[in-house]
Amino acid sequence: MGIEWERIIDLWPEIQVAFYQTLIMIGISLAVALIIGLPLGILLFVTDRGLFWENRPVNSVVGFIVNIVRSIPFIILLVALIPLTQFLTGTTIGPVAASVSLSVAAIPFFARIVETALRDIDKGVIEAAIAVGATPWMIIKDVLLPEAKASLIQGITLTVISLIAYSAMAGVVGGGGIGDLAIRFGYYRYDNTIMIVTVVILIVLVQLIQQAGDFTAKKLDKR
To answer: Where's the ABC transmembrane type-1 domain (predicted)?
Structure first.
């Protein structure tokens, strides 16, 4: 059960490749989550009852779709999206292919985080902006996003950490990354050294991201 340092040295190139693949998966899916999930979360907030773009049908439909995707376990979503992955990337294996499922899972997750962050804003601030004649776009750009930036940073941190966990699961179906390394060597070959190393890498990565996120959020928090 002990760690074999020679084994780690022998497999160090593969560990580096796996780590790089994990970063690719997280980077692509986080970018997609920010690009699509942020406006989706804003839409869920501003179309709710009592807000300046109140639209119950739109809010209900978007919320329903978001909830459907969030209710599907990631491992099932991973398999269900294989045809879409094949269509978009031309393959079903590798970090880029795994990023398709990761992105689909991350978008509604981050959208709900954005919506929750915006709900924490004092309604009086929004009402004051409306009272001085601010347009909806100005309210979003100059009031909502600046007021919620600390919460949004915490939300991004939570999303990244969730994506690390999901990316490890993607290794089960050939997505590559740290999870794939743990499955191939740690599980199938009963290599306890590699299993321990992969767990340590994931723990350190999560701790670094969490600390960086907390530090940034505190710097941005005006309260």
So the answer is: 19-209
